[in-house]
Amino acid sequence: MRRQPLLVIAVGLYASSALFISCGRDIPVVDGSADTTSVVILTLPPLDYGPPVSFSKRVMPLLLDSCASCHNPRNRASGYDVTTYGGVMRGGKRGPAVISGSSKLSLLARAIAGRFIDFPRMPPEPAGPISYDDIMALKRWIDQGARND
Questions:
Q1: Would 49 be classed as within a structural domain?
Q2: Same domain, 59 and 38
Q3: Which of 60, 64, 76, 120 has the smallest set of CB atoms within 10 Å of its CB?
């Protein structure tokens, strides 16, 4: 049996922010037996991809302009109020709207992006969807820890 040395390194970022590195050595060419394959998983901090996003300067104006007509202290559609930092973080009838550090798990980010949710994209017509730049700013703010400034 002839063995051919093989080194494979696969590097990628996965939704859970983990880095996967796989290395294999002495993979057989003929018979089905292989020597050793090892997998190393390194946990990385969440991606913040960009400069810090300000809640008061970037996120709050977006929420007030696009969401507060329905999600305010008087109306509270779905029990959600976006007019204060506490209200944004608290969430509504479906639970917390923001999972600090994870826009992928945050209902607010998923709702405005129109992905993986059981209700229509927010805000609904006639207001229409939020711009890509605004969606990305909100996601960056969440991924950076959803801090109040």
A1: no
A2: no
A3: 120
SS (H, E, C) the chain: CCEECCCCCCCCECCCCEEEEEEEECEECCCCCCCEEEEEEEECCCCCCCCCCCHHHHHHHHHHHHCCCCCCCCCCHHHCCCCCHHHHHHCECCECCCCCCCCCCCHHHHHHHCCCCCCCCCCCCCCCCCCHHHHHHHHHHHHCCCCCC
If asked whether residues 23 and 75 sit together in one domain, one would say: no
* Mean pLDDT, range 55-74, rounded to an integer: 95
Q: Does 111 or 23 have the greater pLDDT score?
A: 111
What is the value of pTM for the model shown?
0.66
Residue 130 has pLDDT above 60, yes or no: yes
Q: Identify any residues that bridge with 24 across adjacent strands, giving them in sequence order.
A: 37
Who's near 87: CB < 8 A, 6+ residues apart?
Answer: 73, 80, 81
